[in-house]
Amino acid sequence: MPLALSHMGILLGTFVIIWAGVTAAFGLYLQARCARYLDRGSASFSAVSKITYPNAAVVFDAAIALKCFGVGISYLIIIGDLMPGVVRGFNERAGDIDFLVDRHFWVTAFMLIVIPLSFLRRLDSLKYTSVIALISIGYLVILVLAHFINGDTMQDRGRIRVVGWGGIIPTLSSFPVIVFAYTCHQNMFAILNEINNNSHFRTTSMVVASNGSACSIYILVAITGYLSFGNNVADNIVGMCKSQAPPACSAPKSNLRTTEADAPSIASTIGKTAIVILVMFSYPLQVHPCRASVDAVLKWRPTRLTQSTSPTSSPTRAIPLLNSNQAASSGGSDYMGETKFAAITTIIIVLSYVVAMTVTSLSTVLAYVGSTGSTAISFILPGLFYYKISAPDSPHHQRLMKEDDSECGEGDGEDDGLLGGSGFKSNDWRRKILRRLSLALAFYGLAVMIVCLITNTFFIVSH
Question: Which long-range contacts (CB under 8 A, 24 or more apart) does 251-260 make?
Answer without folding.
Answer: 251/153, 251/156, 251/157, 251/158, 258/85, 260/88, 260/95
